[in-house]
Amino acid sequence: MDLSGLKWPVLILVIVGIGFLASSPGINFMVGRYTKATPGQDAELDTRDEAGLTRIGGYLLYQWRYQRAYDIMKLAVDRYGASGANCWYNKYRMAKCLEKLGRIQESCALLEELMAANAHAVDARVADNNNLKLRVTKIKEVNDLQ
Question: What does pTM read for this prediction?
Fold first, then answer.
């Protein structure tokens, strides 16, 4: 059976599918998929959904879509709280989003919350307290805050 004629339509469908998932409607579709279940019902599903929201937020952060990335990471933090595996990492990246959005006070407050909780001890992806303190100091110095 010769399947060479099927190669190009399948390739085109794959490219169109990836394009859809990378677009705003595709992202909305994935967020809806990851928020469909009620948190607390199934631990395995909660882990998968929180990781999915974290990946989507990271993708948006990579695209410089800071407000949408912040909203999705905040959704993950609100849904799964401190018990979520990515909670502190999401908060760390939320601080970057807030800084890029010009919400400097909120960014500094979030970084100080991470320092107070010693988030690096819980999640190694979060910078250690010395780096967080340096970042807060630089942000305040550049923006003339107290």
Answer: 0.86
